[in-house]
Amino acid sequence: MNLTHLSLATMMAVLVAPATAQIIITDATTTGTARAPLEQRLDAIFDDPKWDSTWWGVVVQDLETSKIIYNRNAEKSFAPASNMKLYTTAAALSTLGADYKFETKIYATGTTDSQGMLHGDIIVVGSGDPSISGRYLDDKPTTAILAEWADAITSAGIKGITGRIIGDDDIFDDSPISSTWVADYLQEWYAAENSGLAINENCWDVLLTPTHPKVTDLLITEYYTVDAGDIKVVPNDDRETSAPAEEEARLSIDAVLERRDRNRISLSGTIEADSAPVKEWGSIHNGTLFTVTLLKEELERKWSLRSGNRLLFENKGLQAVDIDDLDKQIAEYLKSNRGSLLHTHVSPPLSKILAIINKPSQNFYADMLLKGLGAEAHELGSFSNGEKVVKDMLTTAGVDSRSLNMSDGSGLSRYNRVEPRQTLALLNYMYHRPDFAVFEASLPIMGLDGTLRGRMKGTMAEGNVKAKTGTIGGVRALSGYMTANGRRLAFSMMANNYYTPTSAATEAQDQAVLEIMK
After folding, report:
1. d(CA 449, CA 455)
2. Which of 19, 385, 422, 511 lies 20 to 30 A from 172 at CA?
3. pTM of the model
């Protein structure tokens, strides 16, 4: 069967044919059942004996002709790792649009007397916005956002509160992580909890210097404590001073988050005596309470600076509360009686959020976005509701999604499953959409930025491949687009169950990319 002139719909029908069907895919330079030179070169890479225990799923398509030019196990099911983010971001772009923005609203209940005392509560209502953070926003650090919120409250004439600062996160369900995540991940920044109301990517942040060693909190808060007592300062090594920036810190740190003791972080490891200050971060528990605690502390600092503030004593009793910890009847009342709107925090447009997800492969943003899709379409943000939105998008694209499984939006779960042909069809669908430029711009560029910035420099692939990486133990994936000899191609490569170093799987993918581009 020659697929050279088949339409996308017909091509997909062939790809989803029963496993018993014999499908022979030919290169443009061949006819009939002859094996193409490209097939031989790629097979030589993936048939290497070191991959005897490994599943390779690879499929490549010419986007202009819809012709499949290579297919290896494209109908099999694979763990995709962070290739899962392609599904999350594509569904978000096609469902919400590039200009979509999250809105976090701050309300005041009750009344404010002539002295500026609010006899009521401040309620911060989350929208599932992952971006209330300065980590990727040059113009507005997290502390500046908190100051902006506090200024908005004070500008409303409020100088003190008799009630509480309440965080309403009920746009999401109460499962802050996927139940399928590996327990060892949970203290790490890349496995930060999701919450309907979140700040600073639900992470603690510190600067660590070798003096003592000293820990400096980047967020001034009592919500967590950081103990660096087990960090040892070691003599300087003999490394070249021209070492790459990421090596100059010469730091090895293990962080342990003890949730039983609220949020107590214990750091251990080594730091060299001449090391510059190094930023360390990791996950915290209960992002909603974290957010309103930071706001409470910012308000206390702001009000305490007011000269002659007779309300300072009352403010010291200010409480931050997660709405889930209130009496159920009170919580339900507050949901329908939020009071006066004081401030609306607006996120960057979705186009920027997609780039934060795909280029550095940011898990927290992806998981928040998948739940946000669920909330938008099904009134409650959950991974399962988000998965429904993704599958609806695939149905629109004419893709059979019955075998797709999304346990999260980031790919961190080992229970996620996709087929390379599904990923290819998704890439094809996005390529033919009018907002393709936004989707493509969110992807890492080979040799230039994101998770591909260090790969294939100086080769024909540099700047000509835009693709999403994916890596967890025993899983290495690369899927996206390339331009080769004037042709636009889409491809998906997934390796599962390998026992070589991951670098070997990366090298095999890079070799395959070069063969395809010849």
Report:
1. 10
2. 422
3. 0.88
